[in-house]
Amino acid sequence: MRDLFRRLRDEVDPIVLQAVIAAALSFAHLHDVAYAAGQTGWKAWAYPISVDLLMIAAWRRTKTPSGRAGAWLWFAVALTASVGANVVTAGVLDLEHPPTMLRILVAGWPAIAFLGGALLFHSRKREGATQEAFAEPQLPAVEPDTEAVEEVDPAPPGAPQRPVLVTYAEAATRLGMSEVTVRGAANDGRLTKHRGTDPGRVYVDMAECLMTLRHKLPARVGA
User: Closest Cα to residue 89, out of 20, 36, 18, 23?
Assistant: First the structure.
């Protein structure tokens, strides 16, 4: 038994326990005030439930970004009703002969609670609609296009043309000019000298000869 009490002492939060006791006392006081004001049977029990629900709903709305002012107003209304019931049952008023104002307040409470609950509910709906309006729209999922597309490799860069090596005499014969002219162009650096299959001879590129010695070509060759 001692272990059980020690476990309860360690696991039960004193703040929660105090809140439960205070809520139970306030619930009973609200019932007694409603009963004294002429609300008998299940109606007397509905009053404290209505007050507590309005207080909880308003408190939750105070934690949201919008609508805090209205939520605090309705929380204050519910809290006033709860505290007022506690004070009235402390002997401040004669509950055997309750005053007319108390009867009016008790009779009008259902309409007040309904108004507060409806306003809190609709403010929550408006907040949810506003958040949805400013939310980023979700685009529908689009399946990727699976149609086969032929891939074309880029054309490879043109390889440099291999030189066509000829001797001075062969170049002169093809160009229709003197071999001395070709040799002179090679000796003064206008034509590049190449080594061919015969190490004893010097070769030149036929294409380079055409480009370099174009101005010396006979008319029939250039035609």
Answer: 36
Alpha helices, H only, the chain: 2-11, 14-36, 42-61, 68-87, 100-134, 168-175, 179-187, 206-212, 219-222
User: 68-87 and 14-36 are packed helices; what angle lies between their axes, rounded to 10 degrees?
Assistant: 70
Q: 32: how many CB neighbours lie within 10 A of its CB?
A: 17
Compute and round to an integer the Cα radius of gyration of the chain: 53
111 to each of 90, 114, 194, how far by Cα in Å? 26, 5, 112
Give the sheet arrangement for strand 202-205, strand by strand. Answer: 165-167, 202-205, 194-195
Reduce the DSSP state of residue 160 to 3 states and report it. Answer: coil
Identity (one letter) of the amino acid at 180?
Answer: V
pLDDT digits (tens, 9 = 90+) for 51-74: 999 998 888 888 887 667 888 998
What SS3 state is found at 27?
helix
Rounded to whole angstroms, the Cα distance separating 212 from 76 reads 105
Q: What's the pTM?
A: 0.49
Spatial separation of the C-alpha atoms in residues 52 and 56, rounded to whole Å: 6
